[in-house]
TrEMBL record:
It comes from the Bacteria. It comes from Zhenpiania hominis. InterPro entries: FN3_dom (IPR003961), FN3_sf (IPR036116), Ig-like_fold (IPR013783), Peptidase_S8/S53_dom (IPR000209), Peptidase_S8/S53_dom_sf (IPR036852), Peptidase_S8_Ser-AS (IPR023828), Peptidase_S8_subtilisin-like (IPR050131), Peptidase_S8_subtilisin-rel (IPR015500). Keywords: Hydrolase, Protease, Serine protease, Signal. Belongs to the peptidase S8 family. GO terms for molecular function: serine-type endopeptidase activity. This is S8 family serine peptidase. The lineage of its organism: Bacteria, Bacillati, Bacillota, Clostridia, Peptostreptococcales. GO terms for biological process: proteolysis.
């Protein structure tokens, strides 16, 4: 044991011995990107720190590091740690060490690509990608480089809520603690320092807006930017001591006091996640229409030029909801991590909607800050509204001259369209888009690529009867549906004739077409990108067909070891069929059979070479005015000449399992093979039986185990076995 410890100490000293070089890490050339900072911590020691001092520091870290690797470049040490909890513990300890100049996550970048936030929950913040927030931050850095920024440029944002946990480690950079007050039940604003909060609601909305970015922990607030120097957040508690419980627990007077305090402190954006239905009774049983609150909001918006954002409510209907439905406010609907941006189900089921609602934002399954330094996953319009407020703050940062009305118009006109084109009552103007809004405010290009799906492939058109044409194609990845376009001329214009609303539907039947007239078709897929944007594909290649007899649906099967059985469904408008065969996969097809009747829907190709694969196509024809009109050839169908696929039964009898092969023509097979596996083991051959034996008993099995079986038959031809397809698998548990 002592020798093991000695070797560990020697290894530890050896690793530390290679720590010190001449220069610090060059971030400009750092490559790769990992959003959650999972590659460890960078510890920079102060100039003049000795190896002995460094050893002492690292011994302290070693207490919590189960698995550590050390690399050294200049005065910076890379410490690899297993988990975010280890990183938090290491940061806490290292910041207290006098020998340490700084400690931070190990951010990693790719040359020429945009940077990602180094926060431990950032990979779960899907909502940032749905709103193009990282792209907005990078665009702000280009429009207004960090070196040109000043403290006075920060946009002041206020939240009227249940206050904020100002000691939360992820709310240190962008929250102005000195302006965080409570106005509930007070004549004048009162500082919240040291006060226990009755609810985490306000801390959650604050985190959505202002959580510190690139600090290696938690989440990143939408208005934080890459450098946490864009906004200053003030959290104003307007709720009574019972917290966010009763919908009347924040009074009109207190909300008005909160608005006035925010305006007096220079707020340019106010977020309110609270509400009441029109006509509902207040605490005194009186209708709650609140003209006084509307007047205060109008004063703030129209006279003091403040943007006010409110949650639309979580009742799941189109009821009026105050203050969000006042004309002066921006009312925000809650959307989810949808996979179909063309559906009204982008909206969560519980979010309010209606003609008084304005815009949407992600609000279901969104991570944010909680009390006592915690994090939580929230759901509701209270997660969505602060997202829009944060984007409004970014817009005002890049262009402080914009009026509140202009900010509102930019947010609406640049939103990511959802459901129907333009405004609709379920998603408003669509999901707020931070990058597009910032670009519009700054008067520059947003630099975003137009989302596009893959072009539909294997598009085919073929006759489906005297007055119909059928189209088919392969599924396009991430497609929610398809648009079908038609032209009746080779170089004519195309008109949309059908919208298919399911991405899994891969065919369409165009009926009511004129017999033997040529029609032309194109297909466009529509769908949703991984970050929630609508996308279209390029047009497919042009395909054409004429309505004639329907193309047969051809199938092959083995019923005789020397023959292949062909069958097809009844074809509309058909007077007969032609069958073609090829001896090779890509060879020429020769006509081998003409069936001059409508009735037969099967035919057997006999005297074939055992073990050889044959390929078939067929077409139908109709007879009109003394002329044959042929359909296109059917898709290829193939089969190998071999015995028919066997079937068998299986039953448990005590500690035995009995298999019985279904009876078949003895002349068609020479024998049968039985295979078995368990849940732990692979398939293995357990028995070969002659054709005379159809029954097999599997013995000496383990009670409680599940056994799986399959069989195949064979025919011996000229000394060689030709095997059938394997049967379906059957199982029994002892």
């Amino acid at each position: 044991m002592k020798s093991v410890k000695k070797r560990r100490r020697l290894l530890f000293c050896l690793l530390l011995g290679i720590l010190f070089c001449l220069s610090a890490v060059n971030y400009c050339l750092a490559e790769s990107t990992e959003a959650n900072g999972g590659n460890g911590l960078l510890i920079t020691f102060k100039t003049g720190v000795t190896k002995h001092q460094a050893k002492k520091v690292m011994k302290k870290v070693n207490v919590i590091a189960k698995d550590k690797m050390f690399q050294r470049k200049g005065n910076t040490l890379l410490l690899r740690l297993d988990s975010s909890e280890m990183r938090r513990q290491a940061i806490s300890k290292l910041k207290k060490e006098s020998a340490v100049a700084s400690v931070q996550p190990n951010y990693r970048y790719t040359l020429g690509e945009t940077s990602s936030s180094g926060d431990s929950f950032i990979d779960r913040q899907w909502n940032l990608d749905y709103m193009d927030v990282p792209e907005a931050w990078d665009l702000i850095d280009k429009v207004k480089p960090q070196a040109l920024r000043d403290e006075k440029d920060k946009v002041i944002v206020a939240t009227l809520d249940t206050g904020v946990d100002y000691q939360h480690p992820d709310l240190q950079k962008n929250v102005a603690i000195e302006n965080c007050v409570t106005v509930a039940d007070r004549e004048s604003p009162y500082p919240v320092y040291g006060k226990a909060l009755p609810s985490s609601h306000g801390t959650g909305t604050a985190g959505i807006i202002a959580a510190t970015s690139n600090n290696g922990i938690g989440i990143a607030g939408i208005a934080a930017g890459n450098h946490n120097d864009l906004i200053s957040l003030m959290a104003i508690n307007v709720f009574h001591s019972e917290g966010y419980i009763s919908q009347a627990s924040a009074s009109t007077v207190d909300i008005i006091k909160g608005i006035e305090y925010a305006c007096a402190k220079g707020a340019k954006v106010i977020n309110m996640c609270l509400g009441h239905s029109e006509g509902d009774s207040d605490l005194f049983g009186l209708p709650h229409d609140d003209a006084a609150l509307e007047a205060a909001i109008n004063d703030a918006v129209y006279k003091k030029d403040v943007v006010i954002v409110c949650s639309a409510g979580n009742n799941g209907d189109a009821r009026i909801w105050y203050p969000s439905d006042f004309d002066a406010t921006i009312s925000v609907i809650n959307t989810k991590k949808y996979k179909n941006a063309w559906s009204r189900k982008c909206k969560t089921g519980r979010s309010n909607f209606g003609s008084s609602k304005d815009i949407s934002a992600p609000g279901r399954g969104v991570y944010t800050t909680g009390l006592n330094g915690s994090y939580k996953k929230g759901c509701g319009t209270s997660m969505a509204a602060p997202s829009v407020a944060a984007v409004a703050a970014l817009v005002r940062y890049v262009n402080p001259q914009l009026s509140a009305a202009e900010v509102k118009e930019i947010l609406y006109s640049t939103a990511t369209d959802l459901y129907k084109p333009g405004y609709d009552i379920y998603t408003g103007h669509g999901n707020v888009n931070a990058c597009r809004a910032v670009a519009a405010a700054a008067g520059v290009s947003d630099g975003l690529k137009v989302p596009q799906l893959a072009r539909p492939k294997s598009v085919k058109a073929y006759s489906a009867g005297p007055h119909a044409i059928k189209l088919s194609w392969k599924k396009v990845p991430r497609a929610n549906g398809y648009f079908i376009y038609r032209s009746d001329k080779k170089d004519g214009s195309y008109h949309r004739i059908k919208r298919i609303r399911r991405g899994k539907i891969l065919s369409f039947r165009d009926t009511g077409r004129k017999f033997d007239k040529k029609f032309y078709y194109k297909i466009v897929a529509y769908g949703t990108t991984r970050d929630g944007k609508k996308a279209l594909s390029p047009e497919s290649r042009k395909v054409t067909s004429r309505p004639r007899a329907e193309v047969p649906s051809l199938k092959t099967a083995n019923r005789d070891y020397r023959a292949i059985h062909l069958s097809w469904k009844k074809s509309t408008g058909t007077d007969g069929y032609e069958i073609y065969r090829s001896d090779t996969k890509n060879g020429d097809y020769q006509l081998i059979q003409t069936i001059s009747q409508r009735r037969p829907r099967s035919w057997t190709d006999r005297e074939l070479t055992v073990g050889k694969t044959y390929y078939y196509k067929m077409r139908s024809y109709c007879f009109r005015n003394g002329k044959h009109y042929y359909s296109e050839l059917s898709p290829k169908a193939s089969a190998k000449v071999r015995p028919a696929q066997p079937a068998f039964s299986v039953k448990k009898v005590g500690r035995k399992i009995i298999l019985k092969r279904k009876e078949s023509d003895p002349s068609q097979i020479s024998g049968c093979q039985i295979y078995r596996r368990t849940e732990e083991r692979k398939w293995r051959l357990i028995k070969t039986m002659p054709v005379e034996k159809r029954r097999f008993t599997d013995r000496n099995l383990t009670p409680g185990k599940k056994y799986f079986y399959k069989i195949r038959t064979y025919k011996t031809v000229q000394g060689k076995r030709v095997y059938s397809k394997t049967s379906k698998v059957k199982s029994r548990r002892l």
